[in-house]
Amino acid sequence: MKEKSEILIVFSTELEAESLLNKLNEKRIILSDGNKFKLKNLNAEILISGIGIPATTYSLTKKIISKKYDLIINAGICGTFNDDLSVGECVSVISDEFADIGISYSDASFKTLFEEDLLKPNKYPFSNGELYNPLKSNIDTELPKVTAITVNTVSGNTEQIVFRKEKFNPDIETMEGAACVFVCLKEKINFLQIRAVSNIVEERNKENWNIPLALENLGGELFDILNKITIKE
Asked: Within 10 A of 67 (CB to CB), how many other CB atoms are there?
């Protein structure tokens, strides 16, 4: 990265952004213009994209048109399909895909646009229908590397959960990740996707969620990552 690195940190909600804002406040790092801060030789900016694929695609695209960034970090909470991941654990996403954009049939089956030959699975930025992060980073090496799906409707019933696990074999799911990855790959911007597990993907039961723990850990991990960027430089 160059002498003054420009970093954009993308959250879908203000609640998720508070995970980092609380850590900055704890370290007495002052924000300018409500969403910008400096950390050594790092210029960082926070973007609240809004929830979901359309809002994230629009907000991020509009942002990068007006300014060039060296690294974009998409951060937030997620649900996990993987029993080896614990609630509160932070992960780094190495591949993502849109899991509910496709064609449904009368027998309740579902095919992706790639399976229907409406999109080419290996036409950039896709590789076998997935979106991979090509960045070889040394700032997130301690985090578990996971695969993700991005959905318009989060998994909340057994039939849907079983189907998505069998078809995509994901570790986690979010509502924005692949949108951010898609934009970054198309525009050839380095990126990371850092998530904290707030819940196990199961029949919807928010009593089993622990969003405060996930956000606390997310804020700490993001602050550590930002410091590693400055150390590397």
From this structure: 9
Dihedral sign for Cα 119, 69, 7, 54, please.
Answer: negative
DSSP reduced 3-state for 206: helix
Could you give the domains of the chain?
Answer: 5-232 (3.40.50.1580)
Task: Tell me how far apart the alpha carbons of residues 188 and 47 are, in angstroms, rounded to a whole number.
Answer: 19
In this structure, are residues 102 and 222 in contact, taking their beta carbons and an 8 Å threshold? no
pTM to 2 decimal places: 0.94
Q: Is residue 230 very low, low, confident or very high in pLDDT (cuts 50, 70, 90)?
A: low
Strand, coil or helix: 93:
strand
172-174 vs 131-132, strand pairing mode: unpaired
Cα–Cα distance measured from residue 141 to residue 144, given in angstroms and rounded to the nearest whole number? 8
